[in-house]
Every structure is written in structure tokens, then in C-alpha cells.
Amino acid sequence: MDFSELYNHTAPNLCKFSPSGKYIATTVKYRLVIRDVETLQIVQLYSCLDIIQELEWSPDSQYVLCVMYKRATIQVWCVDQPKWTCKIDEGPAGLSFARWSSDGRNILSTAEFQIRITVWSLVNRSMSYLRSPKFPGTQGISFSPDQKYVVIAERKDCKDYLSVYSCESWETVKTFKVDTSDLVDVSWSPDGSNVVIWDSPLDYKLLVYSPDGRLLSRYQAYENALGIRTVQWSPNSQFVSVGSFDQKLRILNHITWKILAEFSHPQELLKNPTFANVIVYKEVGVENSPVSSLDGFPLQTKYIVIDDVSNVSVPFVKPLPDKPNPKVGVSLQSWSSDSRLILTKNSAMPTALWIWDVSKLSLLALILQLQPVKTAKWDPNKTRAPRLALCTSNGKIYFWRPNGCSCVVIPLAEENGIEFQVNSLEWSPDGNSLLLIGKDRFSSCYLPDDW
Description:
Low-confidence stretches: none
Number of helices: 0
Strand order of the largest sheet: 28-27-32-31-30-29
Number of strands: 41
Helix content: under 10%
Shape: globular
Largest sheet: 6 strands, mixed
């Protein structure tokens, strides 16, 4: 396993692989830096009008979109043609968000106060308007897998609606009212056959619609309590996983839309068939290991396997009853690329990561960290066995594979007396490397083929 040197950046959320996996885009104030993935040499360097606050690669990796909200301006750069430029100025309407369309030749920009979405064509310089979007960002919008349609959540006369638009003409194909009091998000299934929406945490409601507006199913696990927190489709479109504030993950099947499994996150792993074959990995400090000057935790750690699960007690942080947005419930869930495994994290148990085997409806592994888990992501390569990478805001990265857990210390974690802490990470599209992102620096980790 090899690590690159540390490179500077000024926005941790703006370090991104290109969809092709050939480039890495980062920002240094008003500069956009494009690097080669293998050598990390600078391929292109662009200067924007102001500090870059958002960037996104086009789906074909040819263009990079840079957003400057203060100026209500979008600048687009072409990697293959450095002299080609594009500037979009929203003017008095303001700018609250911008993103690529699924074809990579149109840009969707949302005006302030969700007045409208403007579709800017890079091909013929035309404009189209989509009225009354409910949300300014990625929330409330979902493209069909075939890239022909987009569904957008709208709010009209204090009612929620879904509108389906053609991505070719940007004309309305279908608009229909949905049975929600305050719709939170919408998600198109990976096979394009269904659209799932869900209500705010105040009303537990999950609705499944066909793209033509027919209500196919309605699901409500309970009433009179905080409801849905996260929803996600499995990559094969056969399951919908629903994480709730009651600290449970429910998996619905795509045929009857009934519960296939219900996974709880207890403090004690009591005698339960769901936990019968679980392997518990616990991170512990190595004896005589030096201590970090930033967080006081050991710099060198390892995993031990706990054989007797009856003695396992998962650290639990009781949410404060007088504070809004309680840290409880399934806040993180993610399917493996083969749709066989799903990981979850309960906000009230920030140091624990649960890995479930959906084919056996049981808990496969429980990972207990010394520090709260910040990011956990699956290897996107479908040809390999499932592989998981996670970080906990320190100088190490952690891996889980079916044959065990491992902890890797980053060689350049301490440079010039300053510790490099990995706050988030991102897999390359081919799964051969990882982008390790800190507060103001990043590094690339290259994994061996046989690892």
C-alpha cells in the first residue's frame, strides 16, 4: 500500500475524483487544480473570479463546474480544451445551487428562495425554466437511470407535487400531487421502474409511486414519534432500506413492499438469532504507544476479536432531551455494490459500525472504534469481494473485508510537527485508490491489486 505526499486544498468537500477515474479536482481559494490520479502532477490550472464554493465533474469527465454563490456566478472549464470557457451569471435572481444534468451538456441552477430552476444548454446556449422547486440543492431531485427524465419535488399552494420532465426538451411529462405533509426527498430506483418519496421526521410515511403518478405502496412503521431519517435503494433495485429515529433499519422488498427484515442496534448483544454468528472487532491501543497531542488517543492501534458476544457492550451516548435534532437513529446506511451487505451507524453509538448480511438476515460484523466514525464507504468495484474503508479523524485509515479488519497508519500523518487527520475519504471509480481528505491537506492511497 503506497501513499502520496500531502497536498494543500482549501475546501475539504471539494476534493473529487472524475467519473472516469483519471483526474482529481481540488480547489485552492479561487484556483481550480486538476491532477493526474497516478502521478498527482498538475494537468490543468484554472483561475476563477472568486473563491470556489462548489464544484462538480460532468458525467463524462470532460468539464468541471465551479460555483461562486457570492457573485451568483457559475464558471465551466474543459479539461481537454484549456482555452474553452463558459460563464453563467444568474443576476438579481441570485444563486443557491448548481449541478450538471445527467447528459453532462446542461447545467441546472436554482435561484434564491427556490423561485425557479434554470436549465442552461452548453450545446445551443438555450435556456429553459422549471418553476417552484421545493429545495435548492441535490435534495428533491432525481434523474432516471436512462438519463431521459428527471423528477423534481415542487411546492404549490402549501401542497407537495412531483413533476417529471424530459431531459431532451425540458417539457413537463407528468405532474401529480403526492400524499405527504412535508416531503423531504425523492429517489428514482436504479432500474427506473419506481420512485420513492418520504415525509419529514414528524410524520413517518414512505410512499412508492410509478413514474406516471400511480401510488403503488404506502408504508408507516409507527406513529406519534420521530420517523424516517435515511432512505436508500439497493443497487439491484430489489430492496429499499429505511433508517429511523427509533434506532432500527427496516428493509422492504420491491415486490410486495412489505418488511423483509428489521435490524435493531442494541447496547447489549443478547441471545438473539440475528447476532448468532457476528464477529466483533474492537480497536485497542498498542502497549506503550505514544499519544496524539490533538485528541489524546494512542497513535498506534490494532484490532482484537471478541469471541464472547454476550460480554459486548456498545458505547451509547444519551441524547439531550432539551436540544433540537437529537443525535439518535440510523444516520448512516450504505449498500455494498453487490447488494448483499449493508452498513449502518446509529448516531447514539458514534463509535460503532454495523455490517449486516441481507442474504442471511443477520449481523455479520460489528466494528467498535476508539473514536467516532466520520466516514465509511464501500469499494465501488463490483468484480471484487466487498471491501469497506472508514476513518475517524486521526492519522489512520481502517479497512474491513470478509476475512478481517485492518488498521493502517498513514506515513506522513505527522509532517513539520503538524498532524494530518483524515476527516473524510473517497474511493476512485475503479476502486484502486483512495482520496484521504483532511482539513486543509489531502493524500492519495494506492491499494495493491491482490489486497
